[in-house]
Amino acid sequence: MAVEVVLLVPALVLLLGVFVAGWRLWSARTQVTDAAASAARAATLETSGSVARARAHRVARTNLEVLRVPCGSSTIDVDVSGFARPPGQPAQVRVDVGCTVGLGDLLVPGLPGSWRVHGTASQTMDTFRERQP
């Protein structure tokens, strides 16, 4: 009986650690993608590219903080080149949010210390709304 416990307990602990790592990565990726979608939507409501970029950064950072995404570091890239197109032509805003999720505290052999997850979202701008670069 003691031999079975000695063999099974470490295997179960490793399995639990892998499960927790997978859940942490999936959860962070979902939240980062949601933050990118919210930021892209907020940016399309502005009339100026510079204001839209600032608003997208603010919304993405706020979402990451409110949702308590376990990011060691995060990056937010906003493409507002659609604001340079004249009204009447279709355009989009694209937001890419990256996040480094720490896995070093799980003590599972073979797992990296951290993993980078990305979330990207595009939102179509109102075709006939006034725009400024």
TrEMBL record:
Can the keyword Transmembrane helix be found in this entry's annotation?
yes
Originating species = Luteococcus japonicus LSP_Lj1
Q: What domain of life?
A: Bacteria
Transmembrane residue ranges = 6-26
> What are the alphabetically sorted keywords of the record?
Membrane, Transmembrane, Transmembrane helix
Q: Which residues form the TadE-like domain?
A: 2-41
Q: Name one Pfam family in it.
A: TadE
Q: What is this protein called?
A: Putative membrane protein
